[in-house]
Amino acid sequence: MLSRQLTFLTKLTSLTLVGSFIFFNSPHLLKAEIINSSIKTKRQEKNSSRNGLPVNRIAGGSRSSCLANNHRLVALVPEENVNLTASNSPKLFFYIPATKNPYQIEFVLRNQNDELVYETSIDTNQQSGIVSISVPNSVNFKGLEVNQNYHWYLSMICDPMRRSHDLVVEGWIRRIELETAFKKQLQNSNQIKQAELYHQKGIWHDALAALAEEPDASQWSELLDSIGLEDLAQQPLIQNAHYAPWLHRDRISTYTQQ
Fold first, then answer.
1. How many CA atoms lie less than 13 Å away from 223 in the CB half-sphere?
2. For residue range 134-150, what is the model confidence (pLDDT) as tens digits?
3. Within this chain, do residues 230 and 153 fall inside the same structural domain, yes or no?
4. Alpha-carbon gap, residue 211 to 147, rounded angstroms
5. pTM greater than 0.85
């Protein structure tokens, strides 16, 4: 009987010691778990901010006081972080909705170091349409460099005294180098075929620019439908004869490429 009691007490003492060890050390274990979780979260946030570039292809505020209807300012680009071009002087396309009065539209291009490289402004004619903006070469700026990201903004200035009311779309563009074989394919193709080839390669800006040179209603609609903007397929390109010319005022930055 005494032997059984001693055995029971021995087991109870062992359990008590183990429980005490866990109890007194659990704050340290919990703290370590919290630290590890925090480090993991920060690492994920860092990776997310590194890869996530701001993109906003449709301007907010469909009830803006400067618009004549419920249409919105739209950049004709896919919803991707960076869209591609093979040109050092690419064209970007935007849908400009009808406005109640003439307003100024501002286009800004910055390099990946956030340095201004190009800026231009456009006076609207109150009518809706799709307008293209080209990034020109200059003495200081030789155009987009290969494998470099550029951040662009397009703003409709509804009230110059309250720029916080601007309608703004923004995105990123990156120039890539074409393979020799692909260049030969382009040389032997018309504009419509070139647009198809560019689109297959995911070179969006050049696909749209090529098709705009020789607009084909079916191809144009199909191209915009591929990025969810089929509603804009019937909107006229701004260079159509019945549209008054839009006035451009360019300003090339003094930023000099190295």
1. 31
2. 998 776 778 899 999 99
3. yes
4. 24
5. no
